[in-house]
Amino acid sequence: MSVYLITGASGYIGSMCVDYIMHREKEARVIALVRNVEKAAGRFQEFGDRVTIVRADLTDRAVVAALEADCDEIIHCASVTKSAEMIAHPVEVTESIVNTAQNILELARRCQIRSMVYLSSMEVYGNIDCSDGHRVAEEELGDIALFQVRSCYPLGKRMAEQICFSYCKEYGVPVKIARLAQTFGRGVSAEESRVFAQFARAAGAGSDIVLHTQGNSMGNYCSIDDAVEGIFTILKQGADGEAYNVVNEANTMTIRQMAELVAEKIAGKKSRVICRIPKENCYGYAAETGLRLSGKKLEGLGWHPRKDLAQMYLDLMDALGE
After folding, report:
1. Among residues of the chain, what percentage have pLDDT more than 90?
2. DSSP for residue 137
3. Pairing of strands 29-34, 3-7
């Protein structure tokens, strides 16, 4: 019987990882580390005592060191995801990303686990020229502006990845890194406010899809079902100390192209795509990028994404009740 420890287990990806384990491994148990016990208890009620919910401040090394968490495998999902928070609290965001990663790696070291996956982000790549259609592989990294507030997130993720690598090489912690594309679809919370959810709500209402930029930034997307499959493929088959992109290459397009796809295929042309660009980046959007991720390394482990962007939106609208 395997015991999994999932951090950020009440969040979107973390909770979907718990679902995956519960439905695929009938004898497995999960230790779910969360901030909101009540939310997690409601979310995982159907699984009974197979899911143990633990509230913990993962930024506090003493708290994590005191956890009684004898586990076999770890998926570290906990992270800041709201751009507005990155803009408002860059110091705390950096602290959360870096300190939490090291604290969980110490826990992994103590428990002598079989495997661990750290959930990183495609934002670690920074600015890379893909204008010729080039697909970016895991060993390539571009520039990230040092003196921009929102850079706390991608730079923090880069540092956390380096800490993972260091723990692997110095202490033999069997950690792998999953660099996630933008992930959504089934199971998204009704309170979700990110751009993809705004597009879905507009399509459901037949109202205008509003862009707060020109929409030229390239997006890389993967359905939640495919992403979770990818995470577990990395956990079970990935090489220690290495990173893997989790992306459906067929779902690469600009923000404007995605908005137009939603307006045409999902809203049935009842929605228009319009731009209302504020003078300042008050929404905390990431810097414009032309990044195109390669999924070949993960596909080499036998993983293959199945859902296109249109299906992701249909799943999303079901989840939002649109």
Report:
1. 87
2. P
3. parallel
